[in-house]
Write a structure and sequence with these properties.
The chain has 113 residues and is mostly helical. It has one domain. It contains 3 helices and no strands. Helix 2 packs antiparallel against helix 3. The chain starts with 11 loop residues before the first helix and ends in a 13-residue tail after the last helix.
């Protein structure tokens, strides 16, 4: 993601960055989504699973809306490349937060409470 703002034109470098993003990052996001939903379903009691899923989806979409608005404001004030760099750095911080969490070392699904 940090290499995308370096693309200057519509040439081969830009195309390779776009293809790399589609092949690597999008596949990783899909694997992450499957794993996190599976873990959530395994540890959440059946009686509240619908409410938990609805709450996660609602807050997730609300955060996406806020990020779109913030990205538009930053794009106008900082510029496109600066906004892309800032967004990439924020995604890196979010990923490091997940890497530092106990989820990374989890090998078995904890029993439901």
């Amino acid at each position: 993601m940090l290499l995308t703002p370096l693309a200057r034109d519509t040439g081969w470098v830009s195309l390779s960055l776009l293809i790399g993003q589609q092949l690597i990052a999008d596949g990783a996001v899909t694997a992450y989504e499957v794993a996190q939903v599976s873990l959530r379903q395994a540890i959440t009691p059946d009686r509240i699973l619908g409410r938990v899923n609805a709450t996660i989806r609602f807050t997730s979409h609300l955060m996406m809306l806020g990020a779109v608005l913030l990205g538009g404001i930053l794009g106008q004030t900082v510029g496109l490349r600066g906004t892309l760099v800032l967004g990439s750095c924020m995604a890196f911080v979010a990923a490091m937060w997940l890497v530092a969490s106990p989820v990374r070392t989890m090998r078995e699904v904890p029993p439901a409470t």
